[in-house]
Design a protein that fits this description.
Strand order of the largest sheet: 1-2
Shape: globular
Strand content: 15-25%
Distance between the termini: 59 Å
Helix content: 25-40%
Largest sheet: 2 strands, antiparallel
Radius of gyration: 21 Å
Number of helices: 3
Order of helices and strands: EEHHHEE
Structural class: alpha+beta
Number of strands: 4
Length: about 100
């Protein structure tokens, strides 16, 4: 913060921090696919009942559908998450547990 005295008045200039705060969303070009996969796994861990696409979109609003789906497909193919369908037809992604049965 910088303070300047001008003709008996005080002006305060708010400077931006050098490091981005929690409101910084990386642009799609800044996002490493591994980062996105790790973020999805973290969200799944924070929500044991599972997450929907909407949760991922809220967390990573600038990530396009193609990148999001690629990350989800990779996690599914690696056996790290399960894809379930709720009664309403909504797709839910959950962390795979040791007791989970593989999809067929």
């Amino acid at each position: 913060m910088a303070v300047a005295h001008v003709a008996g008045m005080v002006a305060v200039k708010q400077e931006m921090p050098d490091t981005p705060g929690p409101s910084h969303y990386p642009t799609p070009h800044e996002v490493d696919p591994v980062y996105l996969e790790e973020r999805i796994l973290t969200l799944c861990g924070e929500n044991p009942k599972g997450i929907t696409d909407d949760v991922i979109i809220q967390d990573q609003p600038l990530i396009d559908t193609e990148r999001r789906l690629k990350a989800l497909q990779r996690l599914l193919s690696q056996g790290k998450i399960d894809l379930l369908k709720q009664g309403s037809g909504t797709l839910v992604y959950k962390l795979k547990t040791t007791g989970s049965t593989p999809r067929k």
